[in-house]
Design a protein that fits this description.
63% strand, 68 residues, single chain
């Protein structure tokens, strides 16, 4: 079985980032998660609190999910 991270640190970034979705640009707060061998990010629209995008990188592979 794969080894599970022992500690996951989450940090909300100070700067916002724009994410374009269906022709509209959303101003997002970015939450960065870090653990041993894993980094992930979640982009949250500051206006309505909806998750616009998620991304995770592990073992050199990145998976991204974006709201449709």
């Amino acid at each position: 079985a794969p080894e599970q991270p022992r500690e996951l640190l989450a940090e909300v970034q100070v700067e916002t980032e724009p994410v374009t979705h269906r022709g509209k640009t959303h101003t997002c707060r970015v939450i960065v998660y870090r653990a041993e061998k894993v980094t992930a990010r979640t982009w949250v629209d500051v206006q309505d609190g909806k998750v616009v995008r998620q991304e995770a990188t592990m073992l050199g592979e990145t998976m991204a999910l974006q709201r449709e």
